[in-house]
Amino acid sequence: MVQQITSGIKISVETTFEGSFYKNYKIQYAFGYTVTIENQSKDSVQLNARHWEIMDALNNVEIVTGEGVIGKKPVLKPGESHTYTSGCLLGSPFGAMHGHYDMINFTTTKKFQVTIPTFKLSAPFAIN
């Protein structure tokens, strides 16, 4: 598990290897990741958007941006957390992801970014 705190928001990430399959004659490696967003600040905040950079071992980079996470824009009061699971496909058995969440502080009405720390994606049979 990797963890990082930015502006009182703690991000924790755990990953799993889900398996591999062929798509359009190319092998794909499926990974799952579970993110917990914990509000350790004294203010209520809302997650509005996400930005991911997904890299595989073949130097391919995919940028993923969008509103919320899995269709939600969670509001977190002090001490609350939100956990969700998502996934990605890579063209190699290992890679990494990192990014940030765009959030707003309801007390100050200021927008801020929370760093999602870099985490590795690795199939158990891959040597890295």
UniProtKB/TrEMBL annotation:
It comes from the Bacteria. Residues 3-128 form the ApaG domain. PROSITE patterns: APAG. InterPro entries: ApaG-like (IPR050718), ApaG_domain (IPR007474), ApaG_sf (IPR036767). Gene3D superfamilies: ApaG domain. PANTHER family: OS05G0170800 PROTEIN. This is Co2+/Mg2+ efflux protein ApaG. It comes from Gaetbulibacter aestuarii.
